[in-house]
Predict the structure.
Amino acid sequence: MLIGYARISTTEQNLDLQKDALLAAGCQRLFTDVASGAKAQRPGLVDALDHCRPGDVLVVWKLDRLGRSLPHLVETVRNLAAQGIGFKSLRENLDTTTSSGKLIFHIFASLAEFEQDVIRERTQAGLSAARVRGRLGGRPQGVDEKKKRAALALKKNPTRTVKEICQIVGISRNTYYKYTAEPKAVSPDPISEQDDRSARPRIMKVRLWIQVENNSKFVRGKGKAREAIEREVLSHFAVEKPDPKGSEYLLSIPYTHEDELDRVIYEEIFLAMEHLVNERHCFMEADMTAVDDPDRRW
């Protein structure tokens, strides 16, 4: 039996084009979703997958109707194949029940693995750079020089409490007193007054929204993926979670230059999170905004 699945986003017109194409291709059952491919659940796809039996073929109008990303598409089609279910995409003329279709799919799978390798290499490069600056994986080990400077800078603001400074910088109260009680602050580098001003430590307070979902109904890793993100990535940035069951976090990111801030956000946060999610066969959508300037987004 040919099982059709159609999806449009909330900004598209209607499902008629896809439904007509699927019916013309011989689909006997149709399942549909009207939702964003990333943010929303897709009950229609879940029903379609539940309805498929060995020997059936799941048919879509276009590849991006099924997969949110190439790795997600490959994972879903592999799970179907493991149950003896074929896959067909009309626009790309891809049919995994044929020899040529299987060959094309193997090429897609190789590209997906290449994409994962690139993400892994970039993530490892970001983590290596973080280690050089004193940020290590797992539980943070003490205070690096940047955090020390940040604590000393925040102490100069009389409106800041010790508790606030510890939360912003990501240190314990004992560590705060250890470093701020020293008779001499960190000696400045012998650079010009203008360069010294531009290199002073600053804190960017951001609001991070994350949604993690399983790639398919065959995967159950989204809970572990979120735990890994919180433990291995967010814990380094004085993370706060207003709602313990929610998807929003508040982070405090120390930096000295704008280019460093962007690099930390994209390499040490976004890429690192993506790597952890992909390892558990899940997908993620994330959005970050500056607390003091909601128009500033990453």
